[in-house]
Specification:
Elements (H helix, E strand, L loop, with lengths): L1 H19 L3 E3 L11 E3 L1 H19 L4 E3 L5 E3 H6 L2 H4 L1 E6 L6 E3 H4 L12 H11 L15 E4 L3 E4 L6 E5 L4 H6 L1 H7 L6 E10 L14 E11 L17 E4 L6 E3 L1 H6 L6 H17 L6 E5 L11 E9 L2 E12 L1 H10 L5 E18 L1 H8 L3 H9 L9 E4 L5 E4 L4 E15 L2 E8 H12 E4 L6 E4 L10 E5 L6 H13 L6 E3 L5 H10 L4 E5 L1 H6 L2 E5 L5 E4 L1 H9 L1
Parallel strand pairs: 3-10, 12-14, 24-25, 24-26
Antiparallel strand pairs: 1-2, 4-9, 5-6, 5-7, 8-9, 10-11, 11-21, 12-13, 14-15, 15-16, 16-21, 17-20, 18-19, 22-23, 26-27, 27-28
């Protein structure tokens, strides 16, 4: 109990520091705030930008991944085709006493190992049996469980011309609808990937745990398009001696290397293994504690029906184990869904090793008759007729790809029998998707880096952020703002800020010890102190955040270190 209370108090001090120092704070606070919405302040905004920059550079360095940017407002038809309109929902129940809405699965976490995987009927039965108390008022009076779609709806256009739309719940669909442009960009050769960083929106039923469950959030996704019949050529040897914590769906958890798990059949596809290994490297490059990172495989009943394998990267911190990344083999579901909805070909060409002779026996349209009969639908009728088996008979009713139903008569068609030589075939690529919750990752970087020494008012806080994501690269501090030291410190500050990619701050308020403490608290890797000796020989004191060690350096040496 004492450990639990200490953890709660630490979390309170951490969130208080983040708010006080302008890292992360409640949005619209002067108007009472809004659940599930947070601001990145002047320090947090820089931290987020640097995390995103590391993420971006990590994936573009692969050489076959490009970045795109798509609108956040998404037409209804796009998310209807993807399945979000019908399926993107959580199960909700409402307290009869205070009318507070809650996720049914969240209410039952203490009563089932994985309530998120339960059906509506099973959730209802468990809710009735467990009778959990309302987290808002403590009463036990719940409405029937129902599915609640999580998307924010909006309209594109004004008046009667407006089209139904949503704020996107994920960035992925823009990569799928841009597939033809991506295929051309990569000279029609697989594999290749597209990635996107940006905002997503989900009208969460009960936002909780600070930055862990938000209604507007920062995310980053990568869609990697592959030929399912070509063996992936990924070199996993650099990870052969690196043990990671794996939690497989059907075997005991424990340490293993990613190549060994692939060879054993625990990881089901080499491209999934590749992105797991690369993601592990990325997490460490950002500053995640490797001892508090694990890969958890989804059970069969937990995965989407189209998924072939899925692993979550879970990070441990103040809220326990939290999913921060999902790496999923999505098969051909997405491209196939958009192809069926639009009639646009979202495919890739696969050449055969040698030409194949194929006997074609089927039907096609009689153009001179079918064209005038079906007019604008003639092309779609042709596709539907040619998809029929040779045994088909006419007249018959056909449902076209756009949903129209037409009556096809004998005079509209003719027999199609021929021998053709095929050099290859069109196929729908499969997709492996690593999806990253940027806000959740940032929270855990902070949580893992946060250190306290001492107690109460005397507690000293140091944020040991990795240098590549530290929001401020250097703090410039005059020993005193007199005798020319303040002016010289401002000159140094301006000079360091002019360096590309370097963010320096100037702080001349209070004792030098307090200024060191303020810099340490937001994770600034070094402090540059201007003193009397600086005015004499131009050297200044470089102080390391993590060790407190100090040395004298020239301004040129300071610049070189900050550029490194």
């Amino acid at each position: 109990m004492d450990d639990e209370r200490a953890a709660v108090e630490r979390l309170e001090r951490l969130t208080g520091m983040l708010r006080r120092r302008g890292v992360v704070l409640p949005a619209f606070e002067i108007h009472g705030g809004a659940k599930g919405l947070y601001d990145f302040g002047p320090v947090g905004g820089r931290l987020r930008a640097k995390v995103e920059s590391v993420w971006r550079d990590h994936w573009t360095s692969q050489g076959d991944v490009v970045e795109i940017s798509c609108p956040t407002v998404t037409p209804f038809a796009v998310l209807e085709a993807s399945g979000h309109v019908a399926e993107f929902s959580d199960f909700m129940t409402v307290c009869g006493a205070c009318e507070e809405a809650s996720r049914a699965d969240t209410m039952l976490e203490a009563h089932h190992p994985n309530p998120d995987a339960l059906s509506l009927a099973d959730l209802q039965a468990l809710l009735d049996e467990a009778s959990p108390a309302c987290p808002a008022c403590g009463e036990v009076s719940w409405s029937p469980v129902k599915a609640e779609n999580l998307m924010f709806d909006t309209v594109i256009g004004a008046g009667s011309s407006g089209r139904a739309a949503f704020l996107r719940p994920e960035t992925a669909q823009g990569m799928f609808t841009n597939y033809p442009a991506l295929y051309r960009h990569f000279r029609e050769r697989l594999p290749f990937g597209a990635m996107q960083l940006g905002r997503g929106y989900r009208n969460e039923i009960s936002p909780r745990q600070g930055m862990i469950r938000l209604r507007e959030f920062n995310m980053a996704e990568l869609e990697y398009f592959i030929d399912p019949e070509v063996e992936a050529a990924h070199d996993l040897s650099p990870w052969s001696n690196i043990n990671v914590h794996l939690v497989p769906a059907e075997s005991e958890p424990g340490p293993s290397t990613i190549p060994a798990a692939l060879e054993a059949g625990t990881i089901l596809h080499p491209t999934v293994a590749w992105f797991m290994a690369r993601t592990y490297d990325l997490m460490l490059a950002l500053g995640v504690d490797a001892d508090r990172l694990r890969f958890r495989q989804h059970a069969r009943d937990e995965m989407a029906h189209y998924a072939m394998d899925c692993w979550d990267v879970e990070l441990h911190g103040s809220y326990g184990w939290v999913e921060c990344v999902g790496i999923a083999h999505r098969g051909c579901y997405d491209l196939d869904a958009h192809e069926q909805a639009t009639g646009q070909r979202l495919r890739a060409w696969r050449s055969f090793d040698a030409p194949r002779t194929v006997e074609v026996d089927g039907w096609t349209v009689e153009g001179a008759v079918a064209g005038p009969a079906f007019r604008a639908l003639a092309g779609k009728v042709k596709v539907a007729v040619e998809a029929l088996d040779a045994s088909a008979s006419f007249p018959c009713s056909l449902t076209l790809e756009d949903g129209n139903v037409v009556e096809v008569l004998p005079e509209h068609v003719k027999r199609l029998q021929r021998t053709v030589t095929e050099a290859g075939e069109w196929f729908v690529p499969h997709v492996v998707e690593p999806a990253f919750g940027i806000d959740r990752i940032i929270w855990h970087l902070i949580d893992h880096a946060y250190e306290e020494a001492g107690e109460g008012d005397e507690a000293y806080v140091r944020l040991r952020l990795h240098r590549d994501v530290a929001p401020v690269d250097a703090a410039v501090l005059p020993l005193f703002e007199k005798d020319g030291m303040g002016d010289r410190a401002r000159e140094v500050h301006r000079r360091l800020c002019s360096l590309r990619g370097v963010q320096a701050i100037y702080d001349g308020s209070g004792s030098i010890g307090r200024r060191y403490a303020r810099a340490d608290e937001i994770g600034t890797p070094c402090c540059i102190t201007i003193d009397h000796q600086t005015l004499q020989d131009g050297t200044m004191t470089w102080r390391e955040r993590d060790t407190g060690e100090q040395e004298r350096l020239s301004i040129e040496a300071v610049e070189a270190r900050l550029r490194a």
